[in-house]
Design goal:
The protein is 5% helix and 54% strand. The protein has helices spanning 2-21, 360-366, and strands at 98-105, 109-117, 124-135, 147-159, 163-177, 193-207, 216-227, 241-256, 259-274, 288-305, 310-322, 326-338, 346-356, 379-392, 397-417, 425-446, 450-463, 475-485, 489-499, 502-505, 512-515, 518-522, 526-536, 541-548, 556-558, 561-562, 567-575. Strand 11 (310-322) and strand 12 (326-338) form a beta hairpin. The chain is elongated and about 175 Å long.
Length: 576
């Protein structure tokens, strides 16, 4: 009942306050409330635990589900292994740094040769090489045909990790006779003699770093002085062919990724003199002065792809020919190769061209029986397109087949001279021609015991102003082979066959035909076979026999210049 009463009092109290506030204005209420209640307070108690921070991670329980255990039977098969064999070879033979060769041949032909080089060294290499060969024999029915050749070279090199320095000094003296006339004319040896003197030196500096991504380059110089026989009359000393050749050759290359960027820059000067400019010796023999300068820049880019199976090269050869008139040429350079079936077949195609500087020395190396007074022109190969397939049929057999088409301007041909000689010397005529060459080669090698290779070439000439390409073969076959018997006997055989050569002559005669107003002489078939045999008595002493033209063919390499039917040479070699 007390609880009900208290609730009623709380509800009615606000209304009572409102009523009392409205009577009189004294601010005192007219009702006084007196109430009783029970307020019990629960007894306090003390918490026995102190507060603390809980920072421990409680790991969850890991549930493991093991795999089922299965058992299989394991079988092992062991293949049979053949026992290893050891091939025991003798120690490499000792290398000697010098040798001397002495010999004598038929037709009173002495031979002497000496070679010396420094012992093996990583840094230095130097030496000398001297050689002499002469003949005092004659050819029956022809003028005196003696000759002699003596030459030597001194060389040296310094090889370092980052650079190489090389150099040499050389000298060669060659005497010969223009024997291409009948002995019935009674000519003396001095009247038909000729002597060439050749002196020169060269130097090369090469900068090469181990890192292929760095720039590498070579720079070299070359000088050569070449002269013909000096006239007996001292006042006529200028009437001899003489030339000074000087060249600066540089090449550089840089590899970036799979590409190699290269550039060659060359300057070649050749000054040829016969007499003094403006002078005249006879009505027909006038002075010749030629200054021949060739400058060329050849930039190229080479790339290799497909694990080096594919190779491509492209570039240009920019050439300036400052000869009689200054001319500029641009020759293309392009080549593609692709290796198939692990180098079994490598097809390739290419396009190029270039200028060949003709000098008096290079001309005598082709035909030593030329006139000393020559009008020299540079040979220009305007363009050459070639292609072929090379490769290996086995680890011992290799092959190469190719075909090329070229257009050549100012090609030099040797023709018999009748103006400055009695028909026993050769002059030069120049012509433009298109030449097609088909070539095939095959090689076989069985370690160092047997080596055999053969090359066959077929030429087709389209000459503009002449009936034929004079003295050039239509078919050429070269066969070479070597055989080592017990390392005691060494046999070497080489055979050269040529067919289709013709010479231009100035007059009718036996075997001479006329075509297009020109007199033509077929030079016949060349079959030149040479055999050499060496017997090694021990490591330091050996004997040799060399048989030249043992098939006894008196062929003519040049018109009215036959060779000896047979020539034998024998001697000994000492190593020390």
């Amino acid at each position: 009942m007390d609880k009900i009463r208290n609730i009623l009092l709380l509800i009615c109290a606000p209304f009572a306050l409102m009523a009392g506030g409205s009577e009189g204005g004294s601010g005192e209420t007219g009702i006084e409330w007196v109430a009783q209640g029970a307020r019990e307070v629960e007894p306090a108690y003390r918490i026995a635990l102190s507060p603390k921070v809980i920072d421990t991670n409680i790991a969850a329980e890991t549930v493991d589900y093991p795999l089922l255990v299965l058992k299989y039977d394991t079988r092992t098969n062991v293949d049979d292994i053949n026992p290893a064999t050891i091939n025991i070879k003798d120690q490499l033979p000792q290398l000697y740094n010098s040798y001397a060769k002495l010999g004598v041949g038929s037709e009173l032909m002495p031979l002497g040769e000496f070679y010396f080089s420094a012992t093996r060294s990583r840094k230095f290499n130097y030496g000398a090489h001297l050689k002499h060969l002469s003949s005092f024999g004659n050819l029956k029915g022809f003028a005196p045909a003696q000759f002699d050749r003596t030459g030597g070279v001194i060389f040296g090199a310094i090889n370092e990790k980052r650079y190489t320095l090389k150099g040499d000094v050389r000298y060669r003296n060659q005497g010969l006779h223009y024997y291409g006339v009948s002995d019935t004319l009674g000519l003396t040896r001095d009247s038909i003699s000729q002597r060439y003197s050749d002196f020169g030196f060269s130097a090369l500096y090469g900068w090469h770093k181990k890192d292929s991504a760095k720039l590498n380059f070579n720079a070299g110089i070359d000088y050569n002085n070449f002269m013909s026989r000096k006239p007996e009359d001292e006042q006529l000393k200028d009437w001899r062919a003489r030339e000074n050749y000087f060249a600066v050759n540089t090449n550089s290359w840089y590899k970036h990724g799979k590409e190699v960027y290269a550039a060659d820059f060359n300057v070649r000067y050749n000054g040829y003199r016969y007499g003094t400019e403006g002078d005249t010796l006879t009505a027909t023999d006038t002075a010749i002065v030629l200054n021949n300068t060739v400058v060329n820049l050849k930039p190229t880019i080479t790339t290799r792809l497909k694990d080096n199976r594919f190779k491509a090269k492209i570039g240009l050869d920019l050439t300036i020919d400052a000869h009689n008139k200054t001319k500029a040429y641009v020759f293309p350079i392009a080549e593609l190769k692709y290796s198939m079936f692990n180098d079994i077949f490598i097809p390739y195609v290419g396009l190029d061209g270039g200028l060949t500087q003709r000098t008096f020395k290079s001309t005598t190396q082709e035909n030593e029986f030329i006139l000393p007074n020559l009008a020299l022109r540079n040979q220009v190969k305007s363009i050459e397109l070639y292609g072929g397939i090379k490769g290996t049929l086995s680890k011992r057999v290799g092959f190469n087949t190719s075909i090329s088409f070229a257009r050549v301007k100012d090609m030099a041909f040797f023709v018999t001279d009748t103006m400055y000689s009695i028909g026993n010397k050769f002059g030069l005529i120049y012509d433009t021609l298109n030449v097609t060459t088909i070539e095939g080669s095959l090689s076989y090698q069985l370690t160092e015991k047997i080596k055999v290779d053969g090359i066959g070439r077929f030429y087709s000439y389209d000459v503009f102003n002449n009936s034929y390409a004079w003295n050039m073969p239509r078919l050429q076959i070269v066969l070479r082979g070597s055989y080592n018997l017990f390392d005691k006997f060494l046999f070497n055989l080489d055979l050269n066959l040529e067919e289709g050569r013709r010479a231009l002559v100035y007059g009718d005669g036996t075997g001479i035909t006329e075509e297009n107003g020109q007199y033509i002489k077929k030079l016949g078939f060349i079959a030149d076979a040479n055999l050499s045999v060496e017997y090694r008595y021990n490591k330091r002493i050996s004997a040799f026999v060399q048989l030249n033209n043992f098939a006894a063919q008196r062929y003519s390499r040049w018109y009215n210049y036959p060779v000896q039917r047979f020539q034998g040479l024998g001697g000994v070699t000492f190593r020390f």
